[in-house]
Every structure is written in C-alpha cells, then in structure tokens.
Amino acid sequence: MKVNGTPYRSLWWDAEKDALQIIDQRWLPHDFRTQSVETLQDFADAIVQMRVRGAPLIGATAAYGMALAMRLDPTDAHMKTVWDFLHNTRPTAINLRWALNRCQAALLPVPEADRASAALALAHEIADEDVEINRQIGLNGLQLIQDIAAKKPDGEPVRLLTHCNAGWIATVDWGTATSPMYHAHDAGIALHVWVDETRPRNQGALTSWELGSHGIAHTYITDNAGGHLMQHGQVDLVITGTDRTTRRGDVCNKIGTYLKALAAHDNGVPFYVALPSPTIDWTVSDGIAEIPIEDRGSREITHIMGRNDMGEISEVQVTPDGTTGGNPAFDVTPNRLVTGLITERGICDASEDALTALFPDLCG
C-alpha cells in the first residue's frame, strides 16, 4: 500500500543497512516513523510495545528475529533460547508461535554454517507468503461485497463495519479484513466503512488512516455505536480480523469483537472473519476455555495519546488519580455467532468440518 504516494510494506529488509526496517506504529496516525530493528532486544521490544502489531505481522517479525539469531549464533541451543525469548513476548496471537515453529523445523536440519542465510531466506518467504495470502482473502471477500452491491439502488454504498485494525499495517501488506474493502473500492464499488475506535489503543484510528489514504469513505465511531447502527439498518456486513481461530471456528480477536458479533446476530447482519491459514490453531478446539488472553498494562486504560491543537503528540490521563485500569486485550467469539470465515482458499462455515475440508493438508 502507499503512504503519501510511496509504496510501503509494514516491514522490509534494507540490504544497505543489512537490517529489518519497520513502521513504528505507536505514532500513527499522527506521525509516520520508521525504525531499524538491529538486536534481539529490539525485536522483543517491537512486539511487546506494539511498534508492530497484528497477528500476521508479529509472525513475520519473529521470523526475521530468528534470522538475526542465526547470524549471531547458529547453534541448536541458541535457536531454542531465542524461540523462548520471542515466544514470550505476546501470548495470544498464534502466528508468533507458528512462525517460530516453522523456522525451527526448517533450520534444525540445516548445517550451522548455512543457517544464517537459510533463515533470512525463510523470513523473506514468510513475508511474501503473507502478502499473497491477504491478497487472496481480499479477492474471496470481494464476492460478498459484490453480492450486496448488486442488490443496492444505484449509487447507494455497501455499508461495512470493522473492529480494531486488520489492515495492511497489521500484516505485511493488504491486510485481512481490509483487503476485501481495497479490492471492492478498486473495482469501482461504492463503500462506506464504519470504523470502531477500538479502545484502549484506538487502533480504529489506524484503520481510518489507511482507508483515508486509499480514498475509501468511512466514519470513525465509538465502540458502543455499532449495535445502534445495526438496529437502524445502516450496516450490511461486518468483517473483522482474528489473532487466533480454533479448529472448530471460535474466533479470538481484539476485545469488543464478541459484542459486535452479538449485535450482528441479534439484528440479522452477516458477521464474517478474515482468516489467514497461519492464524488457525489446530491444537485448540474451545476458544473460551483454551486460548490464553493477554492482560496488558493498566496505563493503556488510564491514559490516552493524541495530538493537541498545537500539533504536539502527547499523552493525557483520563481517570482519577489512583484508579486501576483492567485491560484484557482480546475476547473470543463462539463459532455459532460467525456467519463465515474468509480464507485464502475460499469462504467456509465456522466449523471444524468446513475448515478441515478447506485445509486438509494443515489440519493434522
């Protein structure tokens, strides 16, 4: 995607610096900053501090972290140490573990002298695969939007609602939930996107920044407004992303997704989840019982960062002194509330049978 007319991925390899470059997303949407990630601690900090965020992007970042690790020390022992070090950064998004496991499985048979180059090549491969997976999700999701558009009076937009940011800056490129929106817009379909603010980190502002850069009409709304809009027929389709989806189709995503699914179910609004296959956790069935939910720091609740009238980016406290903020970062939407899963191989029901039929090579 483009930023001020310049094409970017969310991360890229700088051959001259011989280091990974990332967009430091802590400053978006107010300031566009990039950062060179040069040490293993840099990689861990980038993930923990949400300089990079979104399950697919975290996985790709971890793959490049393993590439750096193999450059520093290509032994089996060091690989295991770094696997643990990076895996412990964030517990919920399954792509982190998926990428580290893939790196470990691919690199263990490789002679130590060749591991550094092999690991970097694998990281590039994982990043490129993510781009293509998300592009295909967009093409498959486009069909849903086209079907709705075909029933609309001329000029009336398809009204979508999304929660959090499942856009290109949450992946390597294209995004998951936003990819169908980009494809539909580029195909000339009129859209209007309701963008949830997604407290506490207000990732909806990142979605607004993305959509605005692409010329897609949108409105930024409070997290509590979606149900009201659905009651009044102003939402045709909900599309969210996911940080981990179980083999039976339970969806773990940013806190508040479950409430959107309940509202959609109550109002007969289709609720779809854009699901790249690396985000499926085939080892887990019951998402509510089995998926660990990250509990982030209180300060994300009690303080908020923004830009004041002077153009300065600053943080302000929004709670009384001494108030403690509770901050579960994700919730789980049971599969019964999910209309369908948009994957790179097609759209399927949120069920074990449907996912297994679509991914017979992965489900084992």
UniProtKB/TrEMBL annotation:
<dbReference type="GO" id="GO:0046523">
    <property type="term" value="F:S-methyl-5-thioribose-1-phosphate isomerase activity"/>
</dbReference>
<dbReference type="InterPro" id="IPR005251">
    <property type="entry name" value="IF-M1Pi"/>
</dbReference>
<comment type="pathway">
    <text>Amino-acid biosynthesis; L-methionine biosynthesis via salvage pathway; L-methionine from S-methyl-5-thio-alpha-D-ribose 1-phosphate: step 1/6.</text>
</comment>
<comment type="function">
    <text>Catalyzes the interconversion of methylthioribose-1-phosphate (MTR-1-P) into methylthioribulose-1-phosphate (MTRu-1-P).</text>
</comment>
<dbReference type="Pfam" id="PF01008">
    <property type="entry name" value="IF-2B"/>
</dbReference>
<protein>
    <recommendedName>
        <fullName>Methylthioribose-1-phosphate isomerase</fullName>
        <ecNumber>5.3.1.23</ecNumber>
    </recommendedName>
</protein>
<feature type="binding site">
    <location>
        <position position="90"/>
    </location>
    <ligand>
        <name>substrate</name>
    </ligand>
</feature>
<feature type="binding site">
    <location>
        <begin position="253"/>
        <end position="254"/>
    </location>
    <ligand>
        <name>substrate</name>
    </ligand>
</feature>
<dbReference type="InterPro" id="IPR042529">
    <property type="entry name" value="IF_2B-like_C"/>
</dbReference>
<keyword id="KW-0413">Isomerase</keyword>
<comment type="similarity">
    <text>Belongs to the EIF-2B alpha/beta/delta subunits family. MtnA subfamily.</text>
</comment>
<feature type="site" description="Transition state stabilizer">
    <location>
        <position position="164"/>
    </location>
</feature>
<feature type="binding site">
    <location>
        <position position="203"/>
    </location>
    <ligand>
        <name>substrate</name>
    </ligand>
</feature>
<feature type="binding site">
    <location>
        <begin position="53"/>
        <end position="55"/>
    </location>
    <ligand>
        <name>substrate</name>
    </ligand>
</feature>
<dbReference type="InterPro" id="IPR027363">
    <property type="entry name" value="M1Pi_N"/>
</dbReference>
<keyword id="KW-0486">Methionine biosynthesis</keyword>
<keyword id="KW-0028">Amino-acid biosynthesis</keyword>
<feature type="active site" description="Proton donor">
    <location>
        <position position="243"/>
    </location>
</feature>
<dbReference type="InterPro" id="IPR011559">
    <property type="entry name" value="Initiation_fac_2B_a/b/d"/>
</dbReference>
<dbReference type="InterPro" id="IPR000649">
    <property type="entry name" value="IF-2B-related"/>
</dbReference>
<dbReference type="InterPro" id="IPR037171">
    <property type="entry name" value="NagB/RpiA_transferase-like"/>
</dbReference>
